[in-house]
Amino acid sequence: MAKTDEKYRRVVASAEPLRILELATIKLLLEAGAIVICAGGGGIPVTANATGGFSGVEAVIDKDLSSALLAQALHADRGEGKSTHSGPLRNI
Predict the structure, then answer these.
(1) pTM, whole model, 2 decimals?
(2) Over the stretch 34-59, which tens digit does the pLDDT of each residue have?
(3) Span between the terminal Cα atoms of the chain, in Å
(4) What are the residues whose beta carbons fall under 8 Å from the beta carbon of 54, sequence distance 6 or more?
(5) Which residue among 22, 58, 64, 90 is the one 20 to 30 A from 37 at the CA level?
């Protein structure tokens, strides 16, 4: 807990994203020509559990690092409305 002025607020760790779990689905949608909104707000922080699934953790994910990780995984560039992606991306 952290005190700000007269109020208290919960403070949690800001974790660095390691991977985008739904990357294959994102790629599939992009290749189909869909407009995909992803990595908004950084994503949901999870950790692998003993059963092979995922469990949520009390943390936040940095949205800029998530976006950078996603762009790197999709081989996106900084072109002006252009992409090096081989799928049928559309300029908006």
Answers:
(1) 0.69
(2) 999 988 787 888 999 999 999 998 88
(3) 43
(4) 21, 46, 47, 48
(5) 58
